[in-house]
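Protein modeling request. Please complete all fields; requests missing the sequence field cannot be processed.
Requester role: graduate student
Desired output: 3D structure, token encoding
Chains: 1
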Amino acid sequence: MIRTNSFKSICILAAFIIHSTSLFAQDGATVVTQDFESWYTIGAKYKASKKWEFGIEQGLRLRQNSSITDQVLTELNVGWSPIQLIEIGLGARYINDRDNNNNLDNDFRWNADLALKHKIDRLSFKYRVRYQNKNEIGLTSDEGDESKNYLRFKVGLKYNIKNWKFDPKLSAEIFRDLTKYTGSFDKFRWTIGTGYNFKKFGELDIYFRMERDLGISYPKTTNIVGLQYSFTFKNKK
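Delivered output (237 residues):
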């Protein structure tokens, strides 16, 4: 009997974690405070040299317990590493996005990155600062378009386990909104995952991610499971 009750408790807890949770705000509006999403990405990279890398990605993101499409996105990016410890990157992303009213719109986002990376024995560290800007396509500021500007600070690490193919990866990131008058940190994200390199057939990564809003009365927590596949082409010269 004890085992049966324990099993039921675990099932109830799992259902609570995975499924969306809604609260009623003081003004009577429904606010979603918890959701489960799934993100899928496929991409290709071209290493032109030790310093230059070009990439393209196609992504799909599902929300509301992964039941409806949230975003379909296409991204182009370029990376430059002037020296071994430093990476500089630029990215441009087209997004077909579903807003809170269930309407689809088209957004354009671009970003600029500066990253520092180094190793200590089997641990690899990477620290990244990203500036990003996002606007709705075809909508002017007079029509209600508001440019969304962010600074994102990310710390990541990877541990190389000897004679093991699935090296663990961990990262934490915080978002600072530059659009608001005073500016504030409004979202935190942490990610844990691993990947497998198929050598001649690309690399497959799987991860679990948690995002949480900051600085609001009804913060939303989003649990995300992600799957990403990328293939790298190298210049043979």
